[in-house]
């Protein structure tokens, strides 16, 4: 299995947009937080989060290819099958079936909602927002409209309430706020 440092270097070669890399770092942090909550392997879960959008620069505008191509690349590079399957599931190429796949599927849009919530706060810092602030934004359908609420709510399929999921995600992202510039 490839380690985190090697994976990050691969990612930086494939993805040139800084905000997209920050998004993947945010999802990595959330996935590690969830792995800790569930007693899962933080490295594997983190890699799934970090690498989930590896093909975004080339295929992000094509939903028939985004995720599918990334999964193929990861498979060719020797990533574990459950990471490859999680990448396929996050992009809708397979139904998310297990805790890892559902976690990535739900964490991807939640990271965007949390970042958007932080950016509308006067401080523009994660440290200035809390779970209730994010939940209030969650209820505003026009706010961060691309953050699919129904996908985020899949957290219930892995035994987490929306509030608990947001708390884990927000705390995980606060842990890397310097890297995220938030």
Question: How does this structure look, described?
Answer:
The protein is mostly helical and 182 residues long. The chain is 64% helix and 0% strand. The longest helix has 22 residues, at 99-120. α6 crosses α7 (99-120), α7 packs across α10 and α8 packs across α10 (162-174). The chain has a single domain, classed as Hypothetical protein af1432. The chain is globular, with a radius of gyration of 15 Å. The mean pLDDT is 96.
Could you name the key traits of this structure?
182 residues; mainly alpha; Hypothetical protein af1432; 0% strand
Enumerate the spans where pLDDT stays under 50 for 5 or more consecutive residues.
none
Order of helices and strands: HHHHHHHHHHH
Beta-strand content bin:
under 5%
The CATH topology, please?
Answer: Hypothetical protein af1432
Number of domains: 1
Straight-line distance between termini: 31 Å
**Whole-number average pLDDT?**
96
Q: Portion of residues in helices?
A: 55-70%
Number of helices: 11
Shape: globular
CATH architecture verdict: Orthogonal Bundle
- The helix-and-strand class reads mainly alpha
How many strand segments?
0
Major sheet details: none
CATH class category label: Mainly Alpha
Q: Radius of gyration over alpha carbons? A: 15 Å
């Amino acid at each position: 299995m490839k380690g985190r440092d090697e994976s990050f270097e691969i990612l930086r070669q494939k993805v040139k947009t800084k905000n997209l890399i920050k998004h993947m770092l945010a999802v990595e942090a959330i996935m590690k937080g969830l792995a800790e909550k569930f007693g899962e392997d933080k490295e594997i879960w983190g890699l799934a989060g970090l690498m989930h959008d590896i093909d975004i620069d080339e295929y992000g505008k094509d939903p028939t290819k985004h995720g599918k191509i990334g999964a193929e690349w990861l498979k060719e590079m020797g990533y574990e099958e459950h990471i490859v399957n999680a990448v396929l599931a996050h992009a809708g190429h397979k139904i998310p079936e297990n805790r890892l796949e559902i976690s990535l599927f739900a964490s991807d849009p939640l990271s965007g909602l949390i970042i958007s919530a932080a950016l509308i706060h006067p401080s523009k810092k994660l440290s200035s927002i809390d779970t209730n602030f994010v939940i209030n934004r969650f209820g505003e359908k026009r706010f961060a409209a691309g953050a699919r609420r129904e996908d985020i709510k899949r957290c219930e399929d892995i035994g987490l309430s929306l509030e608990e999921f947001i708390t884990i995600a927000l705390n995980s992202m606060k842990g890397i706020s310097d890297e995220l510039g938030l």
